[in-house]
Amino acid sequence: MEATAHQKLEQCKVEVKTGQTYREEIPGVVRELMESCLNQDCFAHVGPEPIPSREAVIALINGIFRLLYPGYFSHARVDAVNLSFYLGQEAVAFFEELSRQITLAFRHECLRHGLPCIHCQEKGQEEAVRFLRSLPRLRTVLATDVKAAYQGDPAAKSFDEVIFSYPGLFAVTVYRAAHQLFRQGVPLIPRIMTEHAHSRTGIDIHPGARIGESFFIDHGTGVVIGETAEIGCRVRLYQGVTLGALSLPPDQVESLRSRKRHPTVEDDVIIYSGATILGGKTVIGARAVIGGNVWLTESVPPDTKVFLKKPELIFRSNHAKGARGKTRDK
pLDDT per residue over 155-171, tens digit each? Predict the structure, then answer.
């Protein structure tokens, strides 16, 4: 028994020594990482001024939901007695963090690109207040989105269910807040916001897109809406819809960054699952219906239905050996 214990002790010593040998390689790796930070082909942000925090921006999204949907996402009960106190507390805390993150975003742009001073801290506070002033309008528009989801989906049992659980509404709420900051010229933060919603819901809406009220994304997974897309009022999209840009050679990308590259969808359009609509000159006219899996790179007149031809389906029995399959349209 003593010999076995002694052997185990010796084995432990060997393992500790081996582990130390591996640890001694770490300083060399660190030196290589430091050298690679000086390589312009690698990316690093090393400097005295911090950049906006992704975690802080996500926390701001949570704050936006508490302000836009009072009582739904707070831990404490909200009623008529404490509503003013609740909103005041939330608004002040939100302002402090949003102004800080906007300040960091502007300062990052100024320092990295050598821009003239715009008094970043004052600018951050100014834009944070401007965003807060937009919240009553955003609440009004989002109310139309909630109603559109409830009215457009027979599975929805209540407005509460839509607000609590619909990924489409989550993505649209984040988009509308990010779009406001995008319009205010705030860098970095709007895209961080919509990409967080993308990671949570599978719905990718660029904050630069322009989307009218009563917008409903049903199911939502795989929806892509590009930066220069324009969507009218009372539009409904299903999962897997792409409003994208045509692919371009690398040498043309830079020249088209500020031009319209994504489609326009007019009022009261329905686009079913898997449809792909591409190009900045493509316009889907009002009240059009685009069927599932349709691929479009040209405009569609108003009051038009676009569907694929019904596929030829083959039904083959598994019950009888040598049984002939039958083909029929469905």
Answer: 999 999 999 999 999 99
